[in-house]
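Same chain as my last thread, 493 residues:
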Amino acid sequence: MILSELFFNIKAAFIGNKNIDIKGLEYDSRKIKQGYLFFALDGTHVKGSDFAQQAIANGAVCIVSNKEIKNLSVTNVVVEDVSDTMSKASAKFYGYPDKQMTIIGVTGTNGKTSITYMTESVFKNFGIPIGVIGTINYRYGSVVIEAPNTTPQSLDLFKMMSEMVSQNIKYLIMEVSSHSLVLGRVKDIEFDIAVWTNLTRDHLDFHKNIENYFNAKYILFSSLKNNEKNNKKYAIINSDDFYGKKIIERLTEKVNILTYSVYDKTADFNADNLKLDNSGSGFELKSIYGNKKVQTPHIGLHNVYNILAVICICKANNFNFDELICSVKKTASAPGRFEKIISKQKAVTVIVDYAHTDDALKNVISAIKNLKHKRIITVFGCGGNRDKTKRPKMAKVACLMSDFVFITSDNPREEDPVEIIKDIEKGAVETGNKNYKIVIDRRQAIKQAIDYAQKDDIVLLAGKGHETYQIIGREKIHFDDKQEAKNVLGLNN
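reply #2:
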């Protein structure tokens, strides 16, 4: 694509030839190939312009930056906002693939990953290919890409959507993070369905307060009014959630609203007569399409909400109601979400879960209480360089709901693990309970918790779930809660 054509209707100043042919787009100078355009995108610790010469050495014929870069041997395009420009240019370069697909965005604090996995299961059961973008990975067809971010950069999104379209994949479900909404990574994607799970305190290191956090999430729903496809747009809302109700109040008449609930009997999809046990979750679904008994293998009240959201998504896509309810029984769980490791020899169950907020921790321990058990032993920590306000809150939940707690490290990043644990311990002290022990090293904490467990105890390893690493400083070190638990239990031999 000719550079001037690519930047048509994008405000920019050209220094050099604007009639060159652009063969590809990149923001990582290491991935540049001959004829590519390089977006000099600033990172947390680096300036994009510092990598311009490396990009040129690798074959870049154009550099896009927010200030003129002196002494370039290639064309320099100067724009006000590199990230915003990259989004618009990527949409055009890849032929607006979002307009050729049904795009489902899932946002909220908890439940996003599980909903995407469960929805993918239903689509597969119906023989319908669907792309998935989220916390664990990005996958479509035979392609699986490790996920550095829950929601990738705009350029990556448009490139992947283009590849999906080329494979005749007409549906995409993606987790939409609050960061991606504020940073404009999805601003040029036209969503067809937006799903709201819930909102609890998280990411306040970035958003500063809960209202900013909510407003960031709401951007996804406000985007539904932009309807170039001229089709039905759906907002799927958990009406039991306080902020879910606020979204319903804000939405315009142009958006179709589907509500799901456990307690709100007026919701479009209501789960009544719940039966939660160690075999899964059962309930009577009362809906605008009729009433059905639903049984799923997913344990806990939080998974009832997840299943309700999945049913709403599929009905918004015109799935047959009876066949849908049958299919829900065969949905898969996401890796690292309430994942069980059972030791018959020790008669102990270890559960690995991604719960890393106080609300998520409460949900998973509540679910464990529905299982046959003697004691609940919880291992958890909190990430460094992240929201500090949730640290004592998580400790309160753990100490009040567990029989014993091992407070340890998570991903300390550039914080001192000892200082993080001091913040956590404040909440433990406030409970008045002394049912906890501090073990800074996570490997040792897992070992001590499992060694401490007796017959019929359940050990919860919370916070890391599917992750196979710890971030210490700026370095990623291999670490897998599941592997560590199996090592202690002698199950890796």
